[in-house]
Design brief:
alpha/beta; 4-stranded parallel beta sheet; globular; binds flavin-adenine dinucleotide
Length: about 425
């Protein structure tokens, strides 16, 4: 791996997501050897992935090179590697580029899509956790529109113009809103051969309201906004299967579609090797104490989505969103400094800063403690918060410029099929997973 041994303690961080980055940025200033390992050489700002998949932003606006984090510190090291297993007895990990010993190990591997064991969805559906997956969705949407223009089979055309999204959490709501805007503003200009009323966006949700993690008020408003945009909402509807062409559900609803996007849940993405008691099996997340120490280990920590910290206020663990990951990363940095100095560790306390989702231009919902608002103000707050948390000045500037441009022109500039997903009839199916 070409990592020298130094006098300083070595902290190995697996994952350069929100949690790993927040931790690393503080530790880099300390007298420690910080090694960041990630299977991508960039950090992904996942909350804006949906804009990449719907042609609103290019991926380089929401990704940030991890080497840009380590380059300002002589003792920080980045390696592009998949971490395969942990050998806690030997204080070492095994990766795609070799083994590495650690003094302190921090697991910040986040989560992965949960298919709840449904093989047909996993095989035929699309999902979105990474930049390549968002680009696949973008290509598929645009390729299906191109194919709809040329097909002379009315049933096939209908299926190509039917877009089915499953799971009305923030991702499903934001994606369906963005596809509806594509239909309302881009299709009439770019595709004169398609009548926009032929294009249908269906959002399916197993529970009885959209945005179930948010307040009733936010759900009602989001429901109304989606309806205004022309999204068909099917509540209390569970998908049973998708064979690549037909969606079947637990109700009478059946939909023919060539675009099926699954955003109905996530589960932890643990690394093999720790004792079974470290993992909460149902959630696939590591059980951690209030110092983020993994159950049964003193020098192994977990932060972010992968960590399940049960507290009185959060008996099922913190929500799997960016804020707990950022706050745990920052808090662990302070605790690691304390640990190395032999000082007492301090318990983590989560400060809920609120939840928000956008449904399209001028439409968003925000829950901030007792304050709940929606519409233009919420949309403005949503934009400001996302720009604020986006990593890198250039990314903020480019994203801001794109949003202003898109807003003024009712445009989505990134509608490019750079890497075809289907290859039309040539059947050049590209792997949906990472490349
Ligand atoms: C589409 C989408 C939209 C979202 N929208 C919002 C939102 O609006 N607001 C919000 O608060 N949250 C949102 N979230 C959730 C939020 O992004 C996550 O809660 C947050 O990213 C968790 O941070 P993390 O650091 O724990 O994990 P991640 O940010 O997922 O980072 C994990 C990192 O670990 C790396 N990794 C994983 N396994 C390995 C391995 N074995 N070897 C090497 N590297 C590995 C990954 O490549 C990744 O870089 C969204 C998530 C998604 C997918």
């Amino acid at each position: 791996m070409n990592i020298p041994r130094t006098e300083s303690p070595r902290v190995v961080i697996v994952g350069g997501g929100f949690a790993g980055m927040s931790l690393a940025r503080i530790l880099l200033k300390e007298d420690l050897q910080v090694v960041i390992l990630d299977r991508h050489n960039y950090h992904t700002f996942q909350p804006l992935l949906y804009q990449v998949s719907t042609s609103g932003l290019e991926p380089d606006s929401i990704a940030y090179p991890l080497r840009k984090i380590t380059r300002n510190s002589k003792k920080a090291i980045f390696r592009l590697a998949e971490v395969n297993s942990i050998n806690a007895e030997a204080n070492s990990i095994s990766t795609s580029i070799g083994d590495l010993a650690y003094d302190y190990l921090v697991i910040a591997t986040g989560s992965k899509t949960n298919f709840f064991g449904n093989k047909s969805i996993e095989e035929h559906g699309m999902w979105m956790k990474t930049v390549p997956q968002a680009l696949n969705i973008r290509s598929l949407i645009l390729e299906n529109l191109e194919q709809a223009v040329i097909t002379d089979d009315p049933e096939k055309r209908k299926a190509l113009l039917n877009f089915v999204l499953v799971g009305a959490g923030p991702t499903g709501v934001e994606l369906s809103g963005a596809i509806a805007e594509l239909r309302n503003h881009i299709v009439p200009k770019d595709y004169p051969d398609i009548d926009p009323t032929e294009m249908h966006i269906h959002l399916l949700e197993g529970l009885d309201r959209v945005l179930p993690p948010m307040s009733e008020n936010a759900s009602k408003k989001a429901h109304r906004f989606l309806k205004e945009l022309g999204v068909h909402i099917h509540l209390n509807t569970m998908v049973e299967s998708y064979d690549g062409h037909l969606v079947t559900t637990n109700t009478d609803l059946q939909l023919k579609t060539e675009t099926f996007i699954w955003s109905a849940g996530v589960t932890g993405a643990p690394v093999q090797g720790l004792n079974a008691s470290a993992l909460v099996e149902k959630a696939n997340r590591y059980e951690v104490n209030v110092f983020n120490q993994v159950n049964g280990y003193e020098n192994v920590f977990a932060i972010g989505d992968i960590a399940l910290m049960q507290t009185k206020e959060y008996p099922k663990g913190h929500p799997m969103v960016a804020q707990p990951a950022i706050q745990q990363g920052k808090h662990l940095a302070k605790n690691l400094k304390r640990l190395i100095k032999g000082a007492q560790l301090e318990a983590f306390e989560y400060r809920d800063k609120g939840t928000m989702a956008t449904i399209g231009r001028n439409r968003a919902v925000v829950d901030m403690g007792k304050m709940k608002f929606s519409g233009f103000t919420a949309w403005f707050v949503w934009m400001f918060v996302h720009l604020w948390f986006l990593i890198g000045f250039r990314n903020r500037l480019v994203t801001f410029f794109n949003w202003v441009y898109n807003y003024i022109n009712f445009d989505k500039a990134a509608r490019l099929i750079i890497r075809p997903f289907k290859g039309y009839e040539r059947n050049m199916k590209i792997d949906k997973e990472e490349i």
